[in-house]
Specification:
By secondary structure, this protein is an alpha/beta fold. It folds into two domains: 145 residues, NAD(P)-binding Rossmann-like Domain (Rossmann fold, 3-Layer(aba) Sandwich); 165 residues, Dihydrodipicolinate Reductase, domain 2 (2-Layer Sandwich). The protein is 34% helix and 27% strand. It has nine helices and 16 strands. Strands 7, 8, 9, 10, 11, 12, 13, 14, 15 and 16 form a ten-stranded mixed beta sheet that branches. It has a six-stranded parallel beta sheet with strand order 3-2-1-4-5-6, sandwiched between helices. Helix 7 packs across helix 9. The protein is globular.
Length: 320
């Protein structure tokens, strides 16, 4: 049974801990710079380590949910210690750092997964299947907006919020954009944007992403406008509504809309369960013989960088 540690016990780190407690694994300990978190360790009956490097001596794998600007060094230390890692997104603040971590994990024959939570969301998994049925895609619009809490101070809206819908688009379409154009607004900080709109050119269709940490609504949703159907997806509430509509110059054909029957799941719990199972298989066989669908791709972080560059230069950028 995999021995697991949790590094970073903020709000999301606590969610990691609670979810892992419901999974078949051995939670050895938690680590946080705040010694007050020791009470949580006592509550769960695990060890507390203020220095995460001491925790690494006791585990096979860790989850990392610390501030974004600390990910790079912590993940390097974990991989160099021979530990498998699931790190919350984004894996690092630059694509260069992301690439270094990916290469290090590969050279050490270790698992490096990233918290692309929505790949484990049942509504997104179902949409990926539906994409085969709806004909040619015309365009897709996505929103990832809220103002439920103050913005993060370690990254802007594009890297912190936009990376999720970017990954969803690539996941459900099986394609990657070839060009990007973006606009952003820095109202709260000269360093980090708080709102942005990003347009991706996929060659045969386009997609837009709206991100904001200043919007009055909390929305995680998308419209997929395709040849045979128009699909609304609320991936926060795991809801899919399908609109069978075909539009031509001669006529518009419509059938009744209908909602998909989605078995609502807990994506974080399923994501962590999958990671633990990968670690167990790795330890038993020495290889990972199943697809690591949580793996980080250098491409996703790079696209965030190019989106920010496009917004700063006012130019459309070819993604290479």
């Amino acid at each position: 049974m995999a021995r697991i540690g949790v590094i970073g016990i903020g709000t999301w780190g606590v969610n990691h801990l609670r979810s892992l407690a419901e999974i078949d694994c051995n939670i050895v300990g938690i680590s946080d710079v705040d010694t007050k978190k020791k009470k949580l360790a006592e509550e769960f009956g695990v060890e507390f380590f203020q220095d995460y490097k001491q925790l690494l001596n006791e585990v096979d794998a860790v989850t990392v949910s610390t501030p974004t600007d600390t990910h790079y060094q912590i993940v390097i230390d974990c991989l160099n210690a021979g530990r498998h890692v699931l790190v919350e997104k984004p894996v690092a603040t630059t694509s260069k750092q992301s690439e270094e971590l990916i290469n290090l994990a590969k050279s050490r024959n270790l698992i490096l997964s990233v918290g692309y939570l929505f790949r484990f969301n049942n509504s997104i998994k179902r949409v990926k299947e539906i994409m085969k049925e709806i004909g040619e895609i015309q365009y897709i619009t996505c929103r990832y907006i809220h103002s439920t809490k103050p913005p993060r101070m370690d990254s802007g809206a594009i890297l912190n919020l936009g990376i999720h819908p970017m990954d969803i688009l690539n996941f459900i379409t099986g394609k990657k954009p070839i060009k990007v154009f973006a606009k952003k607004k820095n109202l709260l900080s000269s360093q980090f944007e708080d709102s942005a709109v990003i347009i991706f050119d996929y060659g045969d269709f386009f997609a837009t992403i709206e991100v904001s940490c200043a919007h009055p609504e909390k929305k995680r949703d998308m419209w997929i406008i395709a040849e045979k159907e128009k699909i609304y997806v609320d991936y926060f509430n795991q809801k899919i509504v399908r609109y069978p509509i075909t539009v031509t110059y001669e006529k518009v054909e419509k059938d009744e809309s209908f909602e998909e029957d989605i078995s609502v799941n807990e994506p974080l719990k399923d994501e962590l369960k999958y990671f633990v199972e990968l670690v167990d298989k790795k330890d038993q066989k020495g290889i990972v013989d199943v697809e690591n669908i949580g793996r980080e791709e250098y491409f996703t972080t790079r696209v965030c960088e190019l989106s920010i560059e496009s917004a700063e230069t006012g130019k459309e950028i070819v993604i290479e």
